[in-house]
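F.,

This is the one I mentioned.
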């Protein structure tokens, strides 16, 4: 059997076969073949192995994201042990998150040179080493250095995971596969403070990092046995690229060049705005619950994070399922599938769910007569759960679209998305509590609601004008090989 270039196979356009109704009524495998001409790539791997691959990738992101919020919870204890201030510890976490956003600029080129599987295992090994360094750090300087350096590995798992899913799952299954993969991404940030609140109550803060070491160790084992190489990688330890061509892979300009496409830059900004709201939701509960409700037990406040964690998990699973359902709807209406069709799935979350519950939480906590230390906990619990579910329902379609918009440039686009996304996350995690202290929970919640609405406007514009925006950019920038295709 002749070899197949997966990128060409995935991105090859096809003519619609039969009526839209006939296409939708066909079995799912038949529809996949009609759409992509690449079903041989998807069908060659059994479903059980695909599920293990998704789990392995998801666990790696969970282990990497766990530390992005866990030590925010222990900032007081860390500052006392290392003779510094809580603000320094908070800024070290912000530095870790910012480094996560830039990590794909380091590891994606390495993956192009040595192969994705080798890079994945090496990245996990180095993350393990830096996390051990942070756990045994004797001074604040060593602690901050190890934390920031560990962040330089984190985001590569996001890029590699979404790329693997785009290779191994057909378009009508990608939304759901992405949603299960993103469980690790979205569960890490709320599980961090949840577990930290319980552990800090009974043990030393360093044990949080040793817990993360064990999680990364499991990631290393899973990566060794289950994370696949790219179909374009050379076997074994052979290099894909050598010499100056290898050095050129570290040029970050290709990542920024993709942002010249309005549909791509709009998507990146939408993810950034949502991330601001997400990390403001996660960074403030200890401050708000202790000052507003007088809660002092770290375990009690840590258990509060069950609400957003459950909302994140529910939102990402339902959001992925609904985005796939929306794709089928647009196939029935138009007779073909375009990547931006799935963006229509998140409009209700953008414009109703997130703004409403952000405003309700912010101004409900601001109003002294609206909540009390006895019965008022129901307000932040319900609003945190609902906001979290809305955020990840909105994220689900955006994440999948980034992997589909320009298939031959998906790695650069995903890397750029996370760079923007984690930049907003770092700023939000560092400024959320000072912002509430300066203006109160009401105005802070209003800012999050406004950003969610702006993200919805950008996403709606991309959903309706994505093809024309991309064609305009290609005419302006000259002919490109990245023409948008219904993959």
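My design for it:
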């Amino acid at each position: 059997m002749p070899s197949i270039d997966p990128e060409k196979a995935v991105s090859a356009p096809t003519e619609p076969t039969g009526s839209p109704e006939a296409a939708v009524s066909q079995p799912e495998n038949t529809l996949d073949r009609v759409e992509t001409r690449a079903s041989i790539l998807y069908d060659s791997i059994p479903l059980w192995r695909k599920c293990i691959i998704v789990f392995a990738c998801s666990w790696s992101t969970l282990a990497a994201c766990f530390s992005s919020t866990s030590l925010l919870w222990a900032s007081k204890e860390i500052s006392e042990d290392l003779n510094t201030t809580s603000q320094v510890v908070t800024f070290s976490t912000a530095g870790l998150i910012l480094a996560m956003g830039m990590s794909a600029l380091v590891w994606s080129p390495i993956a192009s040179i040595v192969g994705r599987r080798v890079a994945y295992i090496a990245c996990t090994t180095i993350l393990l080493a830096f996390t051990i360094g942070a756990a045994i750090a004797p001074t604040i300087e060593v602690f901050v250095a190890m934390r920031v350096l560990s962040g330089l590995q984190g985001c590569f798992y996001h890029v590699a995971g979404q790329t693997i899913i785009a290779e191994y799952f057909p378009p009508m299954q990608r939304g759901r596969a992405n949603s299960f993969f993103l469980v690790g991404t979205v569960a890490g940030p709320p599980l961090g403070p949840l577990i930290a609140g319980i552990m800090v109550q009974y043990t030393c803060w360093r044990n949080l990092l040793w817990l993360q070491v064990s999680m990364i160790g499991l990631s290393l084992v899973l990566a060794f046995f289950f994370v696949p190489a790219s179909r374009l990688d050379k076997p074994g330890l052979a290099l894909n690229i050598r010499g100056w061509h290898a050095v050129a892979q570290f040029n970050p300009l290709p990542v920024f060049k993709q942002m010249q496409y309005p549909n791509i830059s709009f998507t990146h900004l939408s993810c950034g705005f949502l991330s601001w709201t997400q990390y403001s939701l996660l960074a403030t509960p200890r401050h708000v619950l202790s000052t507003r409700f007088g809660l002092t037990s770290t375990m009690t406040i840590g258990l509060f994070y069950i609400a957003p964690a459950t909302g994140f998990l529910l939102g990402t699973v339902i959001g992925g399922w609904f985005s796939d359902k929306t794709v089928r709807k647009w196939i029935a209406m138009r007779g073909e599938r375009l990547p931006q069709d799935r963006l229509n799935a998140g409009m209700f979350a953008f414009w109703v769910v997130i703004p409403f519950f952000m405003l309700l939480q912010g101004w409900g906590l601001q109003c002294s007569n609206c909540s009390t230390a006895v019965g008022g906990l129901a307000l932040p619990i319900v609003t945190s759960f609902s906001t979290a579910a809305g955020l990840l329902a909105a994220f689900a379609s955006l994440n999948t679209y980034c992997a589909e918009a320009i298939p031959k440039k998906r790695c650069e686009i995903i890397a750029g998305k996370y760079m923007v996304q984690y930049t907003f996350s770092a700023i939000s995690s560092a400024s959320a509590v000072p912002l509430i202290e300066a203006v109160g929970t009401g105005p802070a919640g209003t800012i999050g609601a406004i950003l969610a609405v702006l993200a919805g406007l950008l996403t709606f514009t991309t959903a309706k004008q994505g093809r024309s925006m991309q064609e305009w950019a290609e005419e302006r920038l000259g002919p490109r090989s990245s023409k948008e295709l219904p993959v």
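DSSP finds 23 helices and no strands in the chain.

Talk soon.
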